[in-house]
């Protein structure tokens, strides 16, 4: 199953953005009372008939913390090369045993401050890119919300892939003056079980430091 083409196109086009490309965006609200699992405070979650333990992860030079299923592991370079053939693949990808549910981090070259106004403008550019790269995508929601003191933009949509449709929940936030994308995706067949989990995982996203630690013990580097 190939999910990567959207990510690669976005990364490539985003890295070419200039400050002149961003225009003010309309104020957005969200999420609209989304149902989600509280993964932040729970040691276990139930997905279908499976009870899954959760754990906090420090990633990207210990700058970012997120709560994930313990059953997720870092996607191997071999599998990542197959699913994300371009060299522009995300820098860190967590996945389940079948590689059908993924959480990917992409640290872009695009400038992004913590200003809500610039985040709104950035979202407009992002949406233009996504409309061009995924014209058949079924949009569900977009918005800006506050998580752990940071303004976080998000897009939620379902996009066609080669052999199935893929649900995408993309969050983006400023990290050291640049845009960090965190993407949760799963197959549409798994959506009923994992959509609420995806939202819960995004609720746990937090920037815990703005300075890289040379002795960082977390997973993934900037």
Structure overview:
A hairpin with a 2-residue loop joins strand 9 and strand 10. With about 220 residues, the chain is α+β, with helices and mostly antiparallel strands. The chain is globular and about 40 Å long. Helix content is about 20%, strand content about 35%. The longest helix is centred in the middle third of the chain and has 18 residues, at about 115-135. The protein starts with a helix and ends in a 15-residue tail after the last strand. Mean pLDDT is about 85; it is low at about 1-5 and about 15-30. Helix 1 (about 5-15) packs across helix 3. The strands form two sheets. Strands 4-5-6-10-9-8-7 form a seven-stranded antiparallel β-sheet. It has a four-stranded antiparallel β-sheet with strand order 1-2-3-11.
Write a concise synopsis of the structure shown.
The protein has 222 residues and is α+β, with helices and mostly antiparallel strands. It is 22% helix and 36% strand.
